[in-house]
Design brief:
Its EC number is 1.17.7.4. This protein is an alpha/beta fold. 34% of the residues lie in helices and 15% in strands.
Length: 391
């Protein structure tokens, strides 16, 4: 007999047929959430936590999560213009030059996007010494330092630059501020690829700060010559505290022009503020290494709403949904919209779903492709079992 509830219903996600396992237990393997009940009491003494969840416990969790829900979608969400452009650059490079096309680092921080492009012939590398001399090489959306560009030239690589134009503007501002003699304070997160590239523009005059403590420790040669810039994916409220502290310490500090601030990060954060106000739970779709996605989770949590980062519907824990009937859903700027629809479909398997949208802005930004790729076409490919991450 397949696992069912007392009313004869089978929990969504539990296939009707299964391998026979120990009585009353579910196997640990991912996706293997089925067993045939072959006897044995739910409270058998030999059953231990290490043996994995029982059928009874899984059904109990499913029952607790099963409910009608209101799903509120954030807008804008998912790909921004810079991410769209970067992905299209790799697609067009593959169409023009054929595989392999090498990409330094992940083109954007999303494992689904990277896996899709890799399946189509993109080869992702950590450093340029992994690229054969003379090969076609794409720089990621996060930008690179002048040292990386020089290394590419030494290897005679055919470079196509997918750096987000807003990141390029930050690089230009670093050079401008440093060129006039300022100490440039970069507000960002150590180790992030965008930060590493930006610091490399003027390493002798640029210092990274991550928090208020870093501001307090700053030692600059001339307090009247200080400028600041921000990593484009920072949360606005998070950076505001640091900017205020800089202004307190250095009253003459100057910052970027307002149009240098990343519109996409700002819009997605504003939308999450609205979700956090309306929802019991906020689900942010994005990969763990996506800075802008992580910031959305942190922002919702700072506003007092439970928030979870997921790469897709399969990562939703039933326990999160127990007692939560209004779920906010958004996606980081590097996460495909297709993952949003999958999450809604998953929630609908647990009960009726009504959906609405809270929109804080309409995005019309469109960045030009590099001139060497303009006019090229991405050929249509037949549908496969693993469809491309459409934008």
């Amino acid at each position: 007999m397949a696992a069912t509830t007392a009313d004869g219903m089978r929990p969504q996600g539990l296939p009707p047929a299964a391998e026979i396992t120990a009585p009353g237990r579910l196997p640990d393997a991912p996706g293997a959430l089925v067993c045939v009940l072959t006897g044995g009491a739910a409270g058998d003494a030999e059953r231990t936590a290490e043996a994995g969840p029982t059928v009874e416990s899984v059904i109990a969790r499913w029952r607790a999560a099963r409910a009608a829900r209101r799903v509120i979608l954030a807008a804008p969400r998912s790909f921004c213009a810079g991410v769209d452009r970067a992905i299209e650059i790799v697609e067009r490079a593959l169409a023009l030059h054929r595989a392999p096309v090498y990409v330094r680092k992940q083109i954007v921080h999303n494992r689904h996007v990277v896996a899709d492009l890799a399946a189509r012939g993109a080869v992702f590398v950590d450093e340029l010494d992994e690229v054969p001399p003379g090969a076609v090489t794409v720089f990621s959306a996060h930008g690179v330092s002048p040292a990386v560009r020089a290394a590419a030239a030494e290897r005679d690589l055919r470079v196509i630059d997918a750096t987000c134009p807003l990141v390029t503007k930050v690089h230009s501002e670093v050079r401008r501020f440093a060129g006039r003699g300022d100490t440039v304070v970069l507000i960002g997160h150590a180790g992030h690829e965008e930060v590493e590239g930006t610091l490399g523009e003027a390493p002798e005059r640029t210092v990274l700060v991550e928090n208020l403590q870093d501001v307090a420790r700053l030692d600059v040669p001339d307090g009247a010559r200080v400028s600041y810039l921000m990593q484009t994916t920072l949360a606005a409220d998070e950076a505001a505290d640091v900017v205020a502290a800089l202004s307190d310490r250095f009253p003459e500090v100057t910052g970027p022009d307002s149009d240098d601030i990343c519109y996409a990060s700002t819009n997605r954060q504003r939308a999450v503020v609205e979700l956090a106000r309306l929802a019991d739970l906020v689900l942010v779709i994005g990969s763990a290494n996506s800075s802008n996605s992580v910031r959305l989770v942190e922002l919702a949590e700072r506003l007092g709403t439970q928030a979870r980062l997921i790469d897709g519907a399969s990562e939703i824990d039933l326990d999160w949904l127990d007692g939560r009937h209004v779920v906010g859903v958004t996606a980081g700027a590097s996460a495909p919209e297709a993952r949003v629809e999958e999450v809604i479909e998953h929630l609908a398997e647990l009960g009726p779903v009504s959906r609405s949208e809270v929109r804080v802005a309409v995005e019309t930004v469109d960045f030009l492709l590099p001139k060497e790729l303009r006019g090229t076409d991405v050929p249509h490919e037949p549908e496969s079992e693993a469809p491309h991450e459409h934008r």
